[in-house]
Amino acid sequence: MSIEAFIDYIVSEYEASCLDKNRDDLDHFWKEAVALFSEAMLNGPVIKKSAARVLYLFSRDVMHLRSLEWEGAKKLRDIYECRVCAEAIAQMYERGVMANAGEDIFGVNDIMQDEEIHNSVRKLMQLNTNIIGSL
Prior knowledge:
single chain, mainly alpha
């Protein structure tokens, strides 16, 4: 799956799982997410650090989730290999949306397989369902 297809996949999964959709938030997310990457990167594979940035952007701008403290993410030695990704990686790790690759490694440059992508998006959508269900 390409990064562009990943971004579209998140939107389609959200539209299918959420009754109360804010079209403006979705449009804003899509534009912001696409702007993060060059055209070549959009057509390239989904790298974990890129996936974290996109998922975090979605969680923040569409789901309106507040940031969590970095309790467990502090142990990830490679989190700062991408300084602009650190917050996104930490938030997706702390929420259980994305898993580490080893005991103290996130795997920032690992290419994600489609199954991993689908699982991460599913976990993010479950957070949204849990939030709506608790209202």
